[in-house]
Amino acid sequence: MIGSAFSWTSQLGEAYHNQKSEVMAAILALRSQAKAAGNLKSTPQMTVVQQTPQTIVIEPADPDVVYVPQYNPAVIYGYPYDQTLESICEPMPRTSIGTR
Prior knowledge:
Blueprint: H1 6-18, H2 20-36, E1 46-52, E2 55-60, H3 73-77, H4 84-88
Antiparallel strand pairs: 1-2
């Protein structure tokens, strides 16, 4: 997947490196928005912990297993969702993951 979206992944990495506080603020704002909409809660795959009013931490329920989330941002964050992160780098291209 990273190979098919190398340009986007590279832009995100550069944005994080050059604008770490802005990227993290956008991520936390989106997490807060998703939690307020009732779409961010602990599941068998992940644990959601609100450490402070501004900090929501998402951790794998099993640290030995990594789940790759796939979702529609408009459904999770509500529509229209805050596009702060997209102003820092281009949106990731749509890809699908499947089996052969």
